Every structure is written in structure tokens, then in C-alpha cells.
Amino acid sequence: MDERSQRYLIVNADDFGQAEGINAGIIAAHEQGIVTSASLMVRWPAATSAAEYARQHPQLSVGLHIDLGEWAFRNGEWLHVYEVLDSDDPHAISREIRRQLEVFRSLCGTDPTHFDSHQHVHREEPIRTIVSDLALELQVPVRHFSSQIRYCGEFYGQTEEGEPYHEGISIENLLALLTTFGPGITELACHPGSGVGTELETQYRAEREVEMKMLCDPRAKEAIMRERIIMCTFREIDHRQLLSDG
Predict the structure, then answer these.
(1) Are 49 and 219 in contact (CB under 8 A)?
(2) Which residues of the chain are under the pLDDT cut of 70?
(3) Total structural domains in the chain?
């Protein structure tokens, strides 16, 4: 096969460390399924056990899932579930992101292999520039802004208004998505979990268990082999060629 037509796939699990149930789901989807990478939320108590697992299993590529807050669509509007800081203060944002990076380094003993963020807040300014500059400093890719890595967020079980969308996390949708990935590198995001209880205030809870089961379904691995897709991680990529175009 022509190398230029080869398809590579990173399956990245977000929210690693946010709760022990999420950790369990990500670990299961890595060991028994198709997850190759994860993004760590360092502010949560379960981050310690997530990082310990990552240290013992270096084949799981781990990046920093920048956590500045969470929003939920309720009663017709987006409301804060929690907010880490004033999102209008660039200096405070920069300090908090660098603080989270230092916590990541302390927990994992290494730099993150990639950057992304909870609910994609890094797509907006001033966070975008802050994260892009930090990524250049570390020479690692940033979700949405690394030109050679296509992002796919279509494996997800809710609509933009937070309504259930179980078709989005069905095995049929997962298998269909695998056939659409073109040449080059694709990142498929996911949010698996197992037994995520009331310790986590979130609207996305039951869907995590379904995601885990679909990611571990043997048909997913069979489809990847049939499509001749090569599974990989952010660690295996030459990051210098994948930096943000700004």
C-alpha cells in the first residue's frame, strides 16, 4: 500500500482522572478495546490513580485535558456546573494552565503527549493562543489546531443541547465512522466510563458505560483490521511536524 494513502487512527479517551468510574472505563477500553490514548484532568482526586496507571502502562499515551470549567444546557440556556476561574482574565488563565501542566508533570513524571480541553474551551481566545504557545514550547499537538491530525467527535451520545443521542454511540455508528477516515492521521474522541456514580455531577453519565461497551466490541477491532487502519498514539508521531498553524 502507498504510504501516502495509509490511514492512522488515535482513539483518545477524555476525562481520565475525573472519577474512578471513568478511570475504570478508560482502562477497560484500552486493555480490551481500541483506546490508545487518554487526556488527564489533573484537578480531580482520581487523577492520582489515573497517573499511576499511566506510569505503569506507558503504551497508553497521556495528554493534558485542560480543565477550566463545565457547562450544561438546562432550561433553555447554558449554565455553569462549575467554573475554575474568571475566563476573562488572560493572566489568570495562563497561570492556571501552567499550574495544571506542573501538576501533570508531578503526577506522571513526564510532559503530556498532547493538549486538549474540557468541552473544547481552548478553541476560543484568549485560551487558544495561550495553549498554542505552550504547545509550541513543548512541541506537542493541540486538538483542532494541528493541521495533520483530523479530529472526529462524532462518537458521542448527546446532542448539542444535552439531549440523549444513543445512535451516536452505537456500534453501527462506530463501524460507519471507521470507513470514513481518509489517508493520514485521525483522532477519534471518546468518553468511556464504568459505574460512574453520583460523585460526579454531570449530564453525561449513563452514556459512558455504553461507550465503553462499544469500544470493547470485537467488531470494532475487526473493522479496523478490515479497513487496514493502523492504530497509533500521539507519542508515536513526530510532533514537530504537527504543530499548530496558529
Answers:
(1) no
(2) 1-4, 197-199, 238-246
(3) 1
